[in-house]
Design goal:
Blueprint lengths: L4 E5 L4 E5 L7 E6 L2 E5 L5 E6 L22
Antiparallel strand pairs: 1-2, 2-5, 3-4, 4-5
């Protein structure tokens, strides 16, 4: 894994996290608005969180908290 790509789609209110460059994939919803993205071999290459921000969040969000921990 060279880099993780995190993208927030304001219009769809979704947070996408890719473990490699985004590419066509098979999506599988696993519950609670979480979709796992898999390649043709079944390897997980990313995931998506639907309805990421709460409905009462401001429409003009310019930044989001992100915590990274390396163990």
């Amino acid at each position: 894994m060279e880099k993780i790509i995190i993208t927030y789609d304001r219009t769809g209110n979704t947070l996408d996290i890719w473990f490699e460059e985004p590419r066509p994939c098979i999506n599988e919803e696993i519950g609670n608005g979480v979709i796992v993205k898999k390649d043709e071999n079944g390897e997980i290459i990313g995931f998506e969180k639907l309805n990421y921000l709460k409905k009462d969040s401001p429409a003009d969000v310019k930044s989001m908290p992100l915590e990274v921990s390396i163990a």
